[in-house]
TrEMBL record, chains A, B, C, D:
Organism: Nocardioides flavescens
Signal peptide stretch: none
This protein's name: NAD(P)H:quinone oxidoreductase
Family: Belongs to the WrbA family.
A Gene Ontology term for the protein's cellular component: membrane
Family matches, as PANTHER family: FLAVODOXIN-RELATED PROTEIN WRBA-RELATED (PTHR30546), FLAVOPROTEIN-LIKE PROTEIN YCP4-RELATED (PTHR30546:SF23)
Residues annotated as domain Flavodoxin-like: 5-192
InterPro entries assigned to the protein according to its UniProt record, in alphabetical order: Flavodoxin/NO_synth (IPR008254), Flavoprotein-like_sf (IPR029039), Flavoprotein_WrbA-like (IPR010089), FMN_Rdtase-like_dom (IPR005025)
EC annotation from Swiss-Prot or TrEMBL: 1.6.5.2
PROSITE patterns: FLAVODOXIN_LIKE
Molecular-function GO terms, alphabetical: FMN binding; NAD(P)H dehydrogenase (quinone) activity
Gene: wrbA
UniProt keyword list: Oxidoreductase
């Protein structure tokens, strides 16, 4: 039976969305069943309108399904993606997490494989801390945290043992390079493998 | 000139609100000028309606002013309050923090005294981690973090060096006791003192 | 084949030692093969001599084997125990972790089930933060972090989703109670179960 | 009166030592009184001997004074430096911190300005997490945490709001560049300024 992967993410201007789609494509090539789901946007419309890249991204995903609690309950493995916002998870993703108390109280979030991915403009402005703040919640879920560590030589290239991260630069638009794409592929194969084992 | 204190908080069922009001009363008794401001509620109305204590609290503060970025820009000292939500800041407070990029980019959040307070139902379910996740953002602001440590004998009673926290218990309604009230008084006096010194 | 569990711990005055022995006894009752190993003491002799409980404990474990890197390489599941020292792992345990770069560089620490246990005198003086600082290193190992969350009703009693912790009180000698013992039993059964699954 | 700065650091192969000396030189140029103090080496002699750069550094600082608790008690501002070791403070620095319970219990570590600096080989292998794990202890001290944030345009160049960090690269010998040196200068001026204000 195919391993079930939920990729739950928030993206404002498209970087996290690009990372999520890379993860989804690799997972599908590996034979996994994938739910790629963005979370609801809660920012004020005027904030979105003031940023062309943000507005374009909101319009681009408008027709796609939004994440629900059931996507996690269903999954064997879960990848959460969020840009950093002041060294922590974006409020949009946090808002989604905060709605999970129902399935949490029934143990439906536990014993799955979880990991995360993130991005920031500056080199050390949340690339590590955002992932650890995210994992605080996974601890509460009773999730099994499957961070990549340095479990492959390619992890010494992207260099993030806590998950996968991308530095978008001063103009916030640096595209993903080989280092990040390879690290994303490694991450998703790893959580699929361990998610499958945990699912029995 | 009076020291200016902003207390910015999110409260669902009233515990954090009670802590915030204690802080405000003590600060005013110390001669500070205080802005007590709750952040906007972003939870769906049906979630709120399903919980009597939550609904009652939303109604109770409906007429009070909501926090704005200017409240931080104005202040010499800032106290943030939030219940834990899965070991991290509630999305309502995070949503407010995420709107601060304008004043942040102009340096208007820096060089003030900051600390936090929180609550959780279980004894070790976010009493420490929520405060540290909150402080991630204060690091980004260039804020000066004035956690209480064990700078008074009473801190060995409430026992939280990272801020002040309260355990609300299985029914989520344990009232504040002397330990917490004393720790709140100590916290606010400490941030006022250091906030005043930083403000020159 | 029996699941292999390494319990690697530092204890000064005996609390962590008592927690470690409880974990070992429960694991053996579950049919696991257990290595119970304390790490080397690196504190100056005069510091140890100045504290009767510390000296007594050093003497008590003097004849027992000390932890080596091979104990982790050998294991399917690993439990690390340490008292908090200023909100972080005791230097004695950290010194042991810092010697693991050889097996780490060969991937020999990865893909095992890891969790932690701790104690502090005050209620919120490192019960959560010490475990998260410990897990920073497990992320680097490529370990699989199996924190307990609230995966059983008894976790709402001890109340620590990040691991198991004990508050030793002002005189640092409060004995383990049912809440902690039950939580320790739950923790070790959980890491054994997931460690066995990961080991194939 | 000159502001008193203690720079307490551990360095194995010299990177953190170079950062510490840059901080000291800038502080002295600013008129501060500086104590530059490395902590005791506790690694086994054979580990040190097996690494030429490590051995050379141990020999180079052999005649210099080692850090004592009094250096912190004396200071108005304190900068701690450590390489990352698996996402956390090196055991050598942690061992020093663990000896501070005497002055801590008398409140002698509180109300000073503290910040940190670190290095790692990989880009995101502890550049943020090591500093936050270090600050756990500063919270316990009742120290005032003066991280740099983005309080100057140059912080968008080195990119670390939690302190200053350097990526040493695959061969662990990348020298400090302008980005790091500028960030170190900014950090030390900032802690001196706030340390002086706190000292009255």
């Amino acid at each position: 039976m195919a391993t079930k992967l939920a990729i739950i993410y928030y993206s404002a201007t498209g970087t996290i969305d690009a990372m999520a789609r890379r993860l989804a494509a690799t997972a599908e090539a590996e034979g996994a069943e994938v739910r790629l789901r963005h979370v609801s946007e809660i920012a004020p419309r005027e904030a979105i309108e003031s940023n062309d890249a943000w507005k374009a991204h909101v319009d681009a995903v408008a027709g796609e399904p939004e994440a629900t609690a059931d996507d996690i309950v269903w999954a064997d493995a879960v990848l959460f993606g969020t840009p950093t916002r002041f060294g922590n998870v974006a409020s949009q993703l946090k808002q989604f997490l905060d709605t999970l108390s129902g399935p949490w109280s029934q143990g439906q979030l536990a014993d799955k494989a979880y990991a995360g991915f993130t991005s920031s403009q500056t080199a050390h402005g949340g690339q590590e801390t955002t992932l650890l703040a995210l994992y605080n919640s996974v601890h509460h879920f009773g999730g099994v945290i499957v961070s990549p560590g340095y479990t492959d030589g390619l992890k010494f290239v992207d260099g993030n043992p806590y998950g996968v991260s991308h530095v978008t630069g001063a103009t916030n638009d640096a595209p993903l390079g080989d280092a990040e794409n390879n690290a994303l592929d490694h991450l998703v194969r790893r959580v699929l493998r361990i998610g499958a084992v945990l699912a029995g």
